[in-house]
Specification:
Distance between the termini: 25 Å
CATH architecture: 3-Layer(aba) Sandwich
CATH class: Alpha Beta
Order of helices and strands: EHEHEHEHEHEH
Shape: globular
Low-confidence stretches: none
Helix content: 25-40%
Structural class: alpha/beta
Mean pLDDT: 95
Radius of gyration: 15 Å
CATH topology: Rossmann fold
Number of helices: 6
Strand order of the largest sheet: 1-6-5-2-3-4
Bound molecules: magnesium ion
Largest sheet: 6 strands, parallel
């Protein structure tokens, strides 16, 4: 059961995920979380580094959709200047928003990776639909109110994975 929380892969940050690596795997699209995955939860807009990363994906024909549990105002303010499709109030780990993102990108589940910083929302949600999930270390060490509770549960699951040798995560 706990396996549903285990990411397919984990990396330090999104910048370790390159178009070359994705294309080699046949990946055509990214469903990504926003807060503490792409930027700090309390930073309103993309950093220059992130803008470059997103453009690189775009230039390589890899579609990106932001799927966030945060409100429309926040997600729209971030996504609109970048002209990236987004789904706010996604209610991850529920699958609805992921399915909608797949449909809007016109991609099959096997063509897409899910990137996120939370086991309880991003990884669980992606895994439940059989998507390839990539966990990143949260960009900021602080979290919004809702996430703080999730982190406590997450720490227990993470410790369990570490004990089993399933994850080696330097903190
Ligand atoms: Mg997040």
């Amino acid at each position: 059961m706990l396996k549903l929380f285990l990411p397919s892969e984990y990396v330090k940050n999104v910048y370790q995920i390159t178009p070359e690596i994705l294309k080699e795997r046949g990946v055509k699209g990214i469903i990504t979380d926003l807060d503490n995955t792409l930027i700090e939860w309390d930073r309103p807009s993309a950093t220059p580094e992130l803008i470059r990363w997103l453009k690189e994906m775009q230039d390589n024909g890899i579609k990106v959709t932001v799927v966030s549990n945060n409100n429309e105002k926040r997600v729209k303010f971030f996504s609109d200047p970048l002209q990236i499709p987004f789904i706010p109030k996604a209610r991850k780990p529920m699958g609805g928003a992921f399915r909608r993102a797949l449909k809007e990108m016109k991609l099959q589940p096997e063509d897409v990776v899910v990137i996120g910083d939370q086991l309880l929302t991003d990884v669980l949600g992606g895994n439940r639909l059989g998507l390839y999930t990539i966990l990143v270390i949260p960009v900021a060490s602080s979290d919004g109110f809702m996430t703080r509770f999730n982190r406590k549960v997450e720490r227990r699951i993470m410790n369990n994975f570490k004990r089993q040798g399933l994850i080696q995560w330097e903190e």
